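Q: Sequence in, structure out?
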Amino acid sequence: MPPERPIKLYDFASSPNCQRVVVVLEEKKLPYEKVPIDLKKMEQKKPDFLKLNPYGKVPVIIDGATVLYESLVINEYLEEKYPETPLLPKDAGKRAKARILLDYGMNHLDGPYQKIRKEMMKDEKERDQQLIEGARKELKHLLGRLERELGDQAYLAGDFSLVDAALIPRFVRLAGMGVLPDPSLPNIGKWIERMKQRPSVQKIL
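A: Exactly. Output:
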């Protein structure tokens, strides 16, 4: 059953955390309305917003009486509350494996990803190119795991799932960082192009 009223999504359009929630809302065809929060103006630190999320971060959703934050928690909630369009495998073992892949993509890639991200935010002359290249090499090595997991599958858990929704905002950024595409990771390259064809992903590009 869809929600009685549209879900409110407190959103900053370029935030990858918000984007992964948008992809799931779109895939499940759930009605929602965005409440823009300007991170540059520090609106996420205002008292009214901190009542919704004491971490002072986006996204936040309000679904009826339920207020939630943290993008991966939100997406798990949407999967449980609105299962009509399932985004995790039915089999418990496959579902657990999907969550392992999600954890790998979000947490194990995070160290080198953040290193590059912080350097790219600096003026070009101030960037540590040696650090960037080292982090790129580390990322490409770590991405080999997902390359093998994909194999000849269309998506990371077989069918499109919360794993794909969670990771695509980050992988779009990896392309912008010069990590992807890479000839040693052809399956990931095809996956990104496949993802870009999905209407839900086109909403965040």
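Residues 92-202 form a domain with the Glutathione S-transferase Yfyf (Class Pi); Chain A, domain 2 fold (CATH 1.20.1050.10).
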